[in-house]
Write a structure and sequence with these properties.
- This protein is α+β, with helices and mostly antiparallel strands.
- The chain contains three helices and four strands; from the N terminus they run E-E-H-E-E-H-H.
- Strands 1-2-4-3 form a four-stranded antiparallel β-sheet.
- The radius of gyration is 15 Å and the shape is globular.
Length: 159
């Protein structure tokens, strides 16, 4: 069986960052899949499910309500390895093009103190598995260490 694209990236050299994972043609449209890598794979601890779940709820809610981007959002959700998230947007986009959006989203999550959207038994299949405090901490860390001074090596996969 042929390896899928995401398994061809050297995870031993991959840094936290914002990467274009792939681009797909769907009819006349391009869908860009972004790898929002929050931890260094295989070199630092993965995120626990509670904070991943919280970031998923907050991030998806933020993106689907964003005045400029909401109509381009197809999906935002966690990677199975718990080192980051996938974001799918319509359009032929670059990593650099979404840095301002990611800065807004992670700033929102780093300062969010209200009820987690959708964290109720009626709205979510595992509503008790949430950790807003750790989600804020990880979001602030990603802002400080990656987004605020983003470099080319954190926008392009290692060769």
């Amino acid at each position: 069986m042929e390896k899928i694209t995401s398994f061809t990236i050297d995870h031993l050299r991959l840094l936290p960052g914002i990467y274009v994972s792939r681009k797909d043609q769907v009819g006349d449209s391009t869908v860009t899949t972004f790898d929002i890598r929050m931890t260094a794979p295989n070199r630092e601890p993965v995120m626990n499910t509670a904070e991943v779940h919280t970031i998923e709820h907050l991030g998806a809610t933020f993106l689907r309500n964003h005045p400029q981007w909401k109509d381009r959002v197809i999906y935002f959700g966690p990677m199975g390895c718990r080192t980051g998230f996938y974001l799918l947007l319509t359009g032929d986009l670059t990593s650099r093009a979404i840095v301002p959006l990611m800065e807004e989203m992670f700033s929102f999550m780093a300062t969010y103190t209200g009820e987690v959207p959708g964290a109720s038994p009626r709205d979510c299949g595992n509503y008790l598995d949430m950790n807003p405090g750790m989600a804020r901490l990880l979001s602030q860390r990603f802002l400080d260490e990656v987004i605020c001074n983003i470099t080319e090596e954190r926008l392009n996969y290692p060769q």
